[in-house]
Amino acid sequence: MMQSRKLPLPITALALLMLPGLAQAASFDCDAKELKPDEKMICENRTLNDADVKMVTTFDLLSGLMAMGSRGTLQDEQTAWLTKRQECGPDAACIKAAYDARLKQLDETYKKINRPL
């Protein structure tokens, strides 16, 4: 009987980022005319852009793993986090800290899921 193994979420997200096309653009349209200040900074800063892609990839992965009743909570947390990120405006350090905190939170959520990949 084969035993399923859970890969740590950061490793899974990193593997997904290595797929062609995923690590190239933010999760929103950087060519849009009405970008918010935080979005403009993310589009201009490769580190922030990469953090955005990692965060949305991780979020999407978790959404697929979670029970349907828990997805609403995850989405509510994401909406609240986006509001906090927007409060950073064009402050790159603030935006980076927001991504670091959110990725840590998503990793903790993943650790609570008792289900093999």
UniProtKB/TrEMBL annotation:
<feature type="signal peptide">
    <location>
        <begin position="1"/>
        <end position="25"/>
    </location>
</feature>
<protein>
    <recommendedName>
        <fullName>DUF1311 domain-containing protein</fullName>
    </recommendedName>
</protein>
<keyword id="KW-0732">Signal</keyword>
<dbReference type="GO" id="GO:0005576">
    <property type="term" value="C:extracellular region"/>
</dbReference>
<dbReference type="InterPro" id="IPR052755">
    <property type="entry name" value="Lysozyme_Inhibitor_LprI"/>
</dbReference>
